[in-house]
Amino acid sequence: MIEAPDLEADLPRATAGDIAVNNLMSACERSWSQFWQARERPGIAEYIVEQEHLKAQFLGDLEALDRLDALADELERVDPESVRTALIRAQVASMAHRFAEATRCLELARSRGAAASDVTRLSLSIDQACGKGLEAVLAARRRTATESGRLEDLVPLGALLADLREFDEADRMYQQALRAYQDVSPFAPAWVCFHLGALWGELVPEPQASRAAQWYRRAINYLPCYVKARVHLAEILLGDGSTPDARALLTPVVSSGDPEVHWRLGDVLNAMGTPADADAHIDAARSGFERLLGRHLLAFADHGAQFYSGSGNDAGRAFELATINVANRPTLRAFEQAHAIAVGAGERQTASRLCGDAKAHWGKTAAFDLSSLVTCRCDLVE
């Protein structure tokens, strides 16, 4: 049994999560009202992007991507030649993992005279997400984090270090980010705690479930409605046999609309011996994923592939989505996922090709030495 941790750790104090969420919802509603009254008003569209991103990230409100696409389309209609429109389009496309489009929009913004700092910030995020030029990205991340010491700069550095399999240093960066935090909003520290949970629960070669659960609980303590933290903690509790606790975590956030909630709740109910109820939630997850994939394929290809390779029980669909994902963002984790799914689907030649491509992209990095692909075969391609 995984025990709930003592949450009296040395963590930043913050506004109560429910209050912060209510404030966010009210502020976002006001911002949209102001936008429709004066679309070219400086700063308002940028503020909406930030607010909608928080709603998607923490509340599981994935329709935020649709609203942001509508925002970008409206800016394109009323102010098509501005730097601002190009930058916002780049940011919205990046959030939806449309990285090729985001890069084109960013280049357009650069040609229109966008500030170098704005271009560099988003360019680094795109390159990091795609596993491109990571030595340069790492150097830039280290330099920025050292100069500012801010949470906003330490967390991306920690995430990159985790991608590079430098787990202990990633942990130090996240812990430093928590110590550096001076604000009272709960969103940022909850975000860091979630990263720490994922680091020790999913990314390290030998996951430490109790350590990860502690961090997920802390994220939820900051933001009780934090959908992804609840989902990830429920997975740990399910693995530990604590099915009633896992169900209690997931039930309050079913209304979020995130199909992962239905997916994991289906797994929990199946483990509790109620297969009919479990099947209903798995069907809801399948419908939810297909709806999202139809609108934002690249944003959900990786999670869709994971679902269909497991509880979704469709190896062909999983293989299709995993290959789309790795083509869009050839990170080491994407290669690992696609290779494992290809093997499971009996696609031996594709698996071999992916192995070769992964070694070509990542074989000279220290991270590859810790990858499951280091021993895979690349000799089956005709």
TrEMBL record:
Gene3D superfamilies per the UniProt record, alphabetical: Tetratricopeptide repeat domain (1.25.40.10)
Source superkingdom: Bacteria
InterPro entries registered for this protein in UniProt: TPR-like_helical_dom_sf (IPR011990)
Protein name: Tetratricopeptide repeat protein
Upper taxonomic lineage: Bacteria, Pseudomonadati, Pseudomonadota, Betaproteobacteria, Burkholderiales
